[in-house]
Amino acid sequence: MLRRVVRQSKFRHVFGQAVRNDQCYDDIRVSRVTWDSSFCAVNPKFVAIIIEASGGGAFLVLPLTKTGRIDKVYPTVCGHTGPVLDIDWCPHNDLVIASGSEDCTVMVWQIPENGLESPLSEPVVVLEGHSKRVGIVSWHPTARNVLLSAGCDNQIIIWNVGTGEAMINLEDMHPDVIFSVSWSRNGSLLCTACKDKKVRVIDPRKKKIVAEKDKAHEGARPMRAIFLADGNIFTTGFSRMSERQLALWKSDNMDEPICVQEMDSSNGVLLPFYDPDTNIVYLCGKGDSSIRYFEITDEAPFVHYLNTFSTKEPQRGMGYMPKRGLDVNKCEIARFYKLHERKCEPIIMTVPRKSDLFQDDLYPDTAGPDPSLEAEEWFAGKNGGPILISLKDGYVSTKNRDLKVVKANVLETKPATKAENISTVQKHVSQHASQPTVKMEDKLEEVLREFKSLRDRVILQDRRIARLEEQVAKVAM
């Protein structure tokens, strides 16, 4: 009887390599805060790193090209009064980043096109609503200007950043600290891991728990839970004997896991990074010196171990580059930004191929930077999957729009606090004086937004027609 010994997979030989020293970011004082976030966020333009800062919280924003030694006086983003705990780049605008801090606020920042030339202390908008430190911030994957934050007050708030309002407040769902929050692929559901050892699937707009699993992992140490592209849930945690585990669950029925695997007895929290295009999960343990990667398939054992990339130095945090920021000419399928104590080191994952042609099996169409919904549409109950783009010619960015925050309705409904001084009142009066102009500007802004939306749609249809013509030509041949 013939038996297949080795499972076929194009990702069996993913090759990881750290870049040369001169391509690292050196002399960075990485934050020492005892919080299990990744401390690093990356997009195709910038790498942002939470750093040690006296008298408040700060993070560095470096253009990807600014490698080498970073000067001690390099400007930082420094508006928080307490240490920064988490940062997240907006998926729809490469110049906008959100940060959550121990000072109980969330701030949204607009970074200049060419990076910072002076310290940035004025955020575009400050979101106040948490009563304890904010440890998690996460942008909606498909709706523009929708941001989620979770704090140590055990509540999740979903904001409309365009107006600065808290639209949804999920309280009384979590009796203890929330370890992780993950959006589903189209952003209609949330998946959370909590200190009470429960994993919950939540419909945020209906404010109800769709499914939950008690003691998803028996151990007391922090868990992580993320949504996969097919709607299943992948979790990492600890067993009763403090061994690290990973598990796969069906989101509609969490009674029994699809599979559970024990890994090792290290005590570092496993941070999962997921690529929905290739269905690969990368696990980076805090304090580990390795990145393990697994492929998730429909056949047993469902979570297939691929390989481990190891270095000598332990990692303090990790940034993960979106697919559109990768070099497709080098068959690069993932890029990590590993934080050491004093530097940030890019690690490139490639699938070696002999051909110089575009490898379309490695690069299916991936989520692009265009949102499929406006914030108001999503809050009204509409859903939309990510708008996909092809990476065939390498991704070329279109110009980002500035983040506009319409604060008028916030000022009208918000009770006056001691922080709002006379200058705010004067500003408010002047706003009323120039209302006709503001209305005209709003209309113009709306027309421009519609025009941009139509233009983007035409570009997408052009690309789609070109692809279809290519396919027809191949069939005709």
UniProtKB/TrEMBL annotation:
The keyword Cytoplasm applies. Residues 437-471 form a coiled coil. WD repeats lie at residues 77-111, 127-169, 171-212. It comes from the Eukaryota. GO terms for molecular function: actin filament binding. Keywords: Actin-binding, Coiled coil, Cytoplasm, Cytoskeleton, Phosphoprotein, Repeat, WD repeat. The keyword Repressor does not apply. It is found in: Cytoplasm, Cytoskeleton, Stress fiber. Residues 4-68 form the DUF1899 domain. Its main location: cytoplasm. One of its GO terms (biological process) is cell migration. InterPro entries: Coronin, DUF1899, WD40/YVTN_repeat-like_dom_sf, WD40_repeat_CS, WD40_repeat_dom_sf, WD40_rpt. One of its GO terms (cellular component) is stress fiber. It holds the Pfam family WD40. Regulates leading edge dynamics and cell motility in fibroblasts. May be involved in cytokinesis and signal transduction. Belongs to the WD repeat coronin family. Forms homooligomers, but does not form complexes with the other coronins. Interacts with Arp2/3 complex components, including ACTR2, ARPC1B and ARPC2. Binds actin. This is Coronin. It comes from Echeneis naucrates (Live sharksucker). The gene is LOC115051697.
